[in-house]
Write a structure and sequence with these properties.
The protein has about 150 residues and is mainly α. The chain is built from eight helices and no strands.
């Protein structure tokens, strides 16, 4: 230990999306010409460099696009164990539950995403699709009276 220097605290395991903007921008600039399998491989390499839930979440999102539901579920749940305070992750887990027909579970996750977004994000307008997803869950469950306030906001 060098004199006069204080040791740095260990990095938090729950990075926000804006803490890792340079990495996200770099990955997104490479996504366009790559196939989904190459994107997943690239994200795995980034996961080895960072102790964050974001690469696992991105892998889960890619598997959702490819309709690999089991792999998407595994990646999203692993990301959730690392960080349970990310509204985008809660939204993606809700999409996963909705695609599997678990509408009650999806509604809970969409509500969680909306509540987390009110705490951590600045704009509610960005979360309008999550409100629509929540209203659709209630419609599928036959709870039209519960659905109306959520859809009228949008």
């Amino acid at each position: 230990k060098a004199r006069g220097r204080t040791p740095k605290p260990p990095p938090s395991r729950c990075y926000g999306i804006f803490d890792l903007c340079p990495y996200v921008q770099w990955v997104s600039s490479l996504l366009w010409p790559l196939s989904p399998s190459q994107v997943i491989l690239l994200i795995c390499h980034i996961l080895a460099l960072l102790s964050s839930h974001l690469p696992l979440m991105f892998i889960g999102m890619e598997h959702l696009i490819l309709s690999n539901m089991n792999l998407a579920d595994e990646a999203l749940n692993a990301a959730h164990t690392m960080c349970d305070g990310d509204p985008l992750l809660s939204n993606e887990r809700g999409v996963m539950a909705f695609n599997r027909g678990n509408y009650e579970e999806a509604a809970v996750m969409f509500q969680d995403a909306i509540q987390l977004a009110q705490v951590t994000q600045t704009s509610e307008i960005e979360w309008a699709p999550t409100y629509v997803n929540l209203g659709t869950c209630y419609r599928k469950l036959g709870l039209v009276s519960v659905m109306c306030p959520w859809c009228s906001w949008v």
